Write the structure tokens for this entry.
Amino acid sequence: MKILFLIGAVSRIRNFQGTLTILADRGHDICLAGKLRKGTFELPESVEHPRISGRVNPTTRVDEWRDFVDLLRGARDYVRYFDPRYADATRLVRRAYEIAPTEFVLYCERHPWVKRHWTLVARAFALCEKLIPTDPGFEAFLREERPDLILVTPLVTFQSYQTDYVKAAHRLGVPIVFIPFSWDNLTNKGLMRIRPDRVLVWNDIQRREAIDLHGCPTGTVAITGAARFDDFFARRPSTSRERFFAEFGLDPARPMVLYLGSSQLTGPNEVELVRRWADSLRAAADEVVRTCGILVRPHPAVRGSWASVDLSDLDNVGLSLDASRRSDQELFDSVHHAHAVVGLNTSAMLEAAIVGRPVHTLLIPGFDEGQVGTIHFRYLVESYGGLATIARDFAEHHRQLAAVLREEPASSARSRTFAEQFLRPYGVERAVSPILADEIERSAAIRKQPQADNPLYPPLRRALLRWLQRRRVARQTAVDATVIGTSLSLRPVKIALEEIQDSTAPVFVGPWADTVGNELLYWIPFLRWVVATYGLPPERLIVLTGSGLREWYGPLGQRFLDVRSVYSAAELEHWQRRTVPQSEQNPKQSVMSPFDEDAVERAARAFDLSEYHVLHPFLLFRTVRRLDGDRALELLRDVLRHERLTPPPDPGDGLPSSFVALSAEFTAALPLTEENDSLLKTVVAQVSAKAEVVRVDGLPLSRQIRALARARTFFGAYGDLAILAAAYGVPATVYHSERLPVDQVDRLQAASETGGWGTVTVERARRFKRVRLSQKVHA
């Protein structure tokens, strides 16, 4: 039998490797197909069976529906979260809101009836899905492979392209089986938009989810158990307690508590929580708790964010940063040598249940949305007697741990019972991989005919397509006749933009990690030009910035993420020490810095994206450097579109009706010297004598913006505040003693002439005589 397994990413193979080996040993040929990852698709070295091969599969439609399927499917995935069963799942609903197409989200906000009658809307989208035809590219791939059976995972990711493979399999009459990848996939992602012939689930909980939440017929859902844990069930400790504790600097004479970190979805501020948790243990009234060993094991997907975390001021604490998704033995040893395991909401708790250790969790306000705001967390604390013991404050948690830590490490009957019923419902001693292999072979016996098109569908299909085409905003992509489109030296920039243009995948814009002044003067105007010239719709763009505000980007992007929100203060400090501003990096390398790469990966996890593009600032800086080298910076005017920013609404914060914004801070252009200090004091005195003054030094950015946007004019050193004032249309008079950045003054003048920015008057410090204060108020 020829089996085609649509695996999506090669990293998922390990969860099914035991089953795949069994099937191959039984004489079946297996082709593992997925998408490219960083330009390659290679099977892991552990897959060495001669009957198992791998190849890349198409992931993008090639027909006229290409521009619309993600919109329709994304909207349908969003509608599922209007189901009252998601009323308390705030974290899942919020993520769906962030991922859903902007146009549809806004429509739902303007028309509340959509949420009230969500079932009718869901049926309408289900009909639209039926009308979408199979794609010739996906169908051709299946015809070329000629499989007897198709397996697919994860299928239910938001806007998943794998839906088209299910559709094509039905069209060709090939049996197709869906195997959920993880324990939470059926509740926290998208839908099975076209139902497969069979669904093979872990337990009766997933069976109910498949039937109740995804509409699968009862007879098509079979329980097998979780094959991915067979290897973990078979593991034994690889090292002694003494040697293991020595590796992390822990005292083997003391009991140890293991903290298992969660993913970005569950615990975006987990570093801060862990610090508070560890501090609480060291301050506990109970001596056993106060002196116990603590080992923190971050989630493999975010372990890079823990590189700067320092817990060395706490005695008997270790941090395991060598964990990866493939280090099952290290995880087993960590759990085995622990007295108890603590975590928020992570699948590693399931491994703890296999080992048999007691599992504890904390519901701490401010850190608990990834628990109470999901559905699958309830399984940990309620199903099969519950796995995790809940504490709602640190004092309660200490009391729970004290009872466990006073005994020798022991197997918890509660944990073992949960492991059996949740992971191995046919018996804790019975491996799941053979059971799953048997069910896969049974599925091959399904006899199905190629699915003919419903005769009513073609006219409805044409009508739907015409309607979508009419509603699509006309974005005529202009020919890029600028220096980027015509210069051979900037061809890499053009190619990068064309690759983004030719795709339908989401685009991360940024991350921006440079000055606010450069963000307003260069980056945002460059993005406006890119979006207009290369026809990028806002629903594709996700803006990443570390300083700017959502309002500055206006309608450019559908989604926005301040990258600071996915880092702790210690992490940001760590990266700031190791990263230079992007304008000082070498853009010829055309690669992201380690910080930018880490920020994009965290953002991808936050938005649950595995396929995306990056519109990175090095495209801008490469253009600037090239034109500077050619002494042709005046050509920047063609690739920058300046627009005056809209002032924020008046919050009634007591600002005068008419005032001058003033800054006495030193900048790179006017550094601290005796002469410059005297200059600024003189400016402050003279301006204060002529007008009411509001000092903006040291204010939070939001308050600086409110003051600058409403000021008559601005006085201060040349720098970000001057550019910020000008962007809001406020004239500025600024001083400098050092050489100014190349091109900035010319660019400010151009922004004033073409974009409605305020005029910036630049004066040399040594030529200062007196303040000239115009009575004119900016419009």
User: Anything to note?
Assistant: Residues 65 and 132 are 7 Å apart (CA to CA).
